[in-house]
Every structure is written in C-alpha cells, then in structure tokens.
Amino acid sequence: MNDGGGCVEMECPSPDPPPGSGAPHGSGGDASETYCLFATTSINQLLKSGFTHCFISQAKQHFELIILLHMAFLLVSSYLLLTYTQGAPVENGALLETLKSQVGLFSNKSEHYSTQVRPPGTSRRIPQTIIIGVRKGGTRALLEMLDIHPNIVVAATEVHFFDWDENYVKGIDWYRSLMPFSYENQITIEKTPGYFTSPQAPERIHDMNSSIKLLLILRDPTERVISDYTQVYYNRVESHKPVQPFEEIVIKNGALNTKYKAIQRSLYDIHMEKWLKHFSLDQIHIVDGNTLIKDPLPELQKVEKFLNLPSRIMSSNFYFNQTKGFYCIRSDGRERCLHESKGRPHPVVNSTVLDQLYSYFREHNSKFYRMINHSFDWH
C-alpha cells in the first residue's frame, strides 16, 4: 500500500511486450512490474499499463486456491464422518457414496481423473475387472448398475487402451492414471465395448494380468445389429449427414451384406474364439443383455458372485421408468437414468430382411453356445 494518494500496489509477472516495441519476445517473463491502482487517470492508461493482465492472472490464482481449500474441507469432513460413524470408511456404502459425490471421486461425466483430490488410504489401480463388450450389448447399463455396489469403483469413460494402438503405446502408467481412486477392498472396473471385437485386445490384456476377470454382455445378435445401425443413424442425423435406410445397407445386390461392420460385430463365436486362446472360460462371465434390461437384479447378483463380492445390490435400487421404457437406478436417495441416447426407438425392419439375419446368425449362435456351454433365447 502506498502511503500517499490511496494507491494500491501489486506485483505480477510482466506480459510479453507487444510486437514492434523493440523488447525481445519473452523478456517480460523474467521481471515483475508494480501497478498502482486507482491512481491511473484514465481507463486507456490503466489498460496500457498491463493492469488487466495482472489482475486476471492474480484473480485466477486466488479463485483456484479457494476451490482447492473448499474441496479439501469437504474431503476432511466426509472422512471424519465416515471414520466416527463406522470406524472403517469402506464398509458404509451410503456414506461412501456421499464422499464420492462431495469430492468428485468419480462421475459419469467425461472428466480426467488427474484433477481429483486423493482421499486418504486410496490409490489409482489397474482394473481387476474389465467389461470387454459387446458394443450395443448393454455395457453402459451394466457399468452404471454395478456402480451401485460400495465395493466397486468405475472408470468414467471408455479408455480404448487395448484396442487403439495410439493409446496402447502410451504405456500402463498412462492407463492407470485414467482410473478412479479406490480403497484396497474395492474393485476397479473399466469398460470399453470395442475390446471384444479387437484382434489385439485379448493378448494385450492377458499380458497385463493373466488372472483378470472379464465381463461380457451380449444380446440377440440381430437386435444388436439394428441397435448398432440406430446409433450411427442418429449420430449422422445430428451431424447433418446423409443417412440410408437399414435395408439398403444390410442387403446388397439382393444378398445379405455380411461385410457390414454391424453384422461382423454380432459374430460372437468368431470373436470369442480369440479370447479363449488367452483366457479360460471361468475367467469370462457372460451377462444376458436381454434379461438385464427386463429384470436387472438376477443378472447383477450373478456378477456379484462371479467377482466374489458380498450381495449389496437390491431390487429397491431399481425402478421402471414408463416414459423411457427401461429401468433406472435409485441409490442413496438419488435417482438417475441412462443418457437420453440410450433406448432410442429402432426402425421398423422389413420382415424378409429380419428372416435373412436370423438365418445367417443361427449357425454362428449354435457354435457359440457350444463354446460357452450355455444357450440363450435368441432367434
């Protein structure tokens, strides 16, 4: 504070000089300037003095500090509440969920975990379980529903570590950095539907952890093809791109277009064969996607058993949303449904085309049933 004239002084790094000023670029970063507030005689002089740059810079720093202090306060308060209530924070599911929501342990938004505050006693760990697919099989619904369990933490986004070369070359530490913080008795789950159909993913996951447990959610292959088409259709409409009717894509020159990617993804036997070269069948639990959307609890209880977890998911955690036409989640006083992009209406498909799809998949389905020693009620 200047003793004469009510001048407030503040110091901050000088910005780079404007072009043509004669000063070398970057020279401002090594010095600091003192700005006198309220003594400048005009707005133009105030702006030219560089005060605006200084003020914004310091205001930003102060704001970030306030945010960090607030998060730290919430974290400590929640931790003490958990400790005094149960003596072991990880045993109280409801309070743990409160802690997660208070300090942003995870959410279903696209966020990077490096910005999170680390709760005491936690660490980021490589997933012990991965949902490997299949695309449009119900992977998001499965992940959201498993997220109810207090002994499960989930990665917020699809990482595509094992199926995209550009991510795989970043290394295992990069992969770990994208995982949420977890306690020792919690299982970290990541889901990327593209893994199931990826030629490289089975071997790469096996190289990381040969004893890992895998979850695979499947649905009727013909329904999956139509759902796959529906997602692409709406994405193209929203991007103002041209679209084709389903029949024109699936049928080419009067025959089934078996090269269509959506059809290729539904050849479960071909993809499963690659996984069984690296993992035993008892390491892969198959979730019935058609049953999960109609009656979630029995399928989730099977997953709890497969993961050796105590039974914590209950029927009260779900309610049927008549508007959306599928089950939504109720957990710790909060209700949430899947994103609006889920459960979109499918196009009405020509019955002749449907019969061609059913016929094509029938042999592949039979082979798949023999591989896994189990059958499904598919067409």
Automatic annotation (TrEMBL):
The keyword Ubl conjugation does not apply. Its EC number is 2.8.2.-. It is found in: Golgi apparatus lumen. GO terms for molecular function: [heparan sulfate]-glucosamine 3-sulfotransferase activity. Keywords: Disulfide bond, Glycoprotein, Golgi apparatus, Signal, Transferase. The active site is at K136 (for sulfotransferase activity). Disulfide bonds join C328-C337. The keyword DNA-binding does not apply. InterPro entries: NST/OST (IPR037359), P-loop_NTPase (IPR027417), Sulfotransferase_dom (IPR000863). Coiled coil: none annotated. Its main location: Golgi. Residues 1-27 are annotated as: Disordered. Residues 127-346 form the Sulfotransferase domain. It catalyses: alpha-D-glucosaminyl-[heparan sulfate](n) + 3'-phosphoadenylyl sulfate = 3-sulfo-alpha-D-glucosaminyl-[heparan sulfate](n) + adenosine 3',5'-bisphosphate + H(+). 3'-phosphoadenylyl sulfate binds at K136, G137, G138, T139, R140, R219, S227, Y327, K342, G343, R344, P345, H346. GO terms for biological process: glycosaminoglycan biosynthetic process. It is an enzyme of class 2 (transferase). One of its GO terms (cellular component) is Golgi lumen. Sulfotransferase that utilizes 3'-phospho-5'-adenylyl sulfate (PAPS) to catalyze the transfer of a sulfo group to position 3 of glucosamine residues in heparan. Catalyzes the rate limiting step in the biosynthesis of heparan sulfate (HSact). This modification is a crucial step in the biosynthesis of anticoagulant heparan sulfate as it completes the structure of the antithrombin pentasaccharide binding site. Belongs to the sulfotransferase 1 family. This is Sulfotransferase. It comes from Alligator mississippiensis (American alligator). The gene is HS3ST1L1.
